[in-house]
Write a structure and sequence with these properties.
7-stranded mixed barrel; 3 helices; alpha+beta
Length: about 170
């Protein structure tokens, strides 16, 4: 059964990126709303176009993590966005992106990026002390989850993707 939602990424100044349409497929006990996207409208950092994506929207942690998969279900990338916790209203999930990202490869090596964007937008958009602290906390949590191999850096995304694809019926 379909469960359509729109994921909406906002910037601190209120500007919006175009929504991503998908299906809410899990409300995880660790506070994640998980949305499935068939053919996410964004290439990975390495330029590959994923066949599928699962976005783990943190509802009580300052983090949103997009897990991108190829056509055979192998992870291409984990893209961690530091953000204010996501909110859901009806069929809209919103989160305020705070620029800092942690990009993680399938072998679990990662690097932080967009610190220049963070510094610039902190000034231009007038990030509050809370926003600055939240961004750093989001990256800290992403690193902690990665080091401990906790969701979504475990087998959970693979198993969930398998269930989602199986529920769609025969190929």
């Amino acid at each position: 059964m379909r469960n359509p939602v729109a994921s909406n990424k906002l910037k601190f100044d209120g500007t919006r990126k175009p929504p991503w349409r998908g299906d809410l497929v899990e409300v995880h006990p660790d506070g994640w709303l998980v949305v499935f996207y068939e053919e996410p409208p964004r290439a990975t950092t390495g330029g590959e176009w994923p066949a599928y994506g699962l976005r783990y929207h943190g509802t009580d942690q300052p983090l949103s993590i997009l897990v991108s998969f190829n056509t055979t279900g192998h992870v291409l990338e984990y893209h961690c966005d530091a953000a204010f916790p996501a909110t859901i209203r009806r069929r809209d999930i919103e989160f305020i992106d705070l620029d800092l990202d942690l990009v993680v490869a399938p072998d679990y090596t990662g690097y932080e990026r967009d610190s220049d964007d963070f510094a610039r937008n902190s000034r231009l958009m007038g990030y509050t002390d809370e926003a600055i602290a939240t961004a750093h906390e989001g990256i800290r949590i992403a690193r902690e989850l990665l080091a401990a191999r906790r969701t979504p850096f475990d087998d959970a995304p693979h198993m969930l993707l398998g269930r989602v694809l199986a529920s769609q019926g025969p190929v």
